[in-house]
Design goal:
The protein is mainly β. The protein contains no helices and eleven strands. Strands 2, 4, 5, 6, 9, 10 and 11 form a seven-stranded mixed β-sheet that branches. A four-stranded antiparallel β-sheet has the order 1-3-8-7, with no helix packed on it.
Length: 123
């Protein structure tokens, strides 16, 4: 089970930290991904972090502003978002695949999804 939180209404240039709490599996064996879905658009990849944190990937659109991290002792994954832009407005989801120790980025390679947390950025 995945539970995302931390979204809200912010102004352009602000920062947010999204959190995702995981339960039910050996969290430290799985890559964790962040995706987002803006109104009227497809769900898109944002970032992924490997089971031990040694591999990290970002979408080009968020590089330099977003930082993903995880705390395996707490079964938590985080997404720090800086310099927010109106185009970052979306529902943000954390996700995990069924297969352990496999670093994946594609939306359809993730099997478990949190409920999403809404980030709204006003200009």
């Amino acid at each position: 089970q995945l539970q995302a939180s931390g979204g809200g209404l912010v102004q352009a240039g602000d920062s947010l930290r999204l959190s995702c709490a995981a339960s039910g599996r050996t969290f430290s064996s799985y890559v964790m991904g962040w995706f987002r879905q803006a109104p009227g658009k497809e769900r898109e990849f944002v970032s992924a972090i490997s089971w031990s944190g040694h591999l990290i990937s970002y979408a080009d659109s968020v590089k330099g502003r977003f930082t993903v991290s995880r705390d395996n002792a707490k079964n938590m994954v985080y997404l720090q978002i800086n310099s927010l832009k109106p185009e970052d407005t979306a529902v943000y989801y954390c996700a995990a695949p069924k297969t352990p120790y496999k670093f994946v980025r594609g939306r359809y390679e993730y099997d478990y999804w949190g409920q999403g947390t809404l980030v709204t950025v006003s200009s």
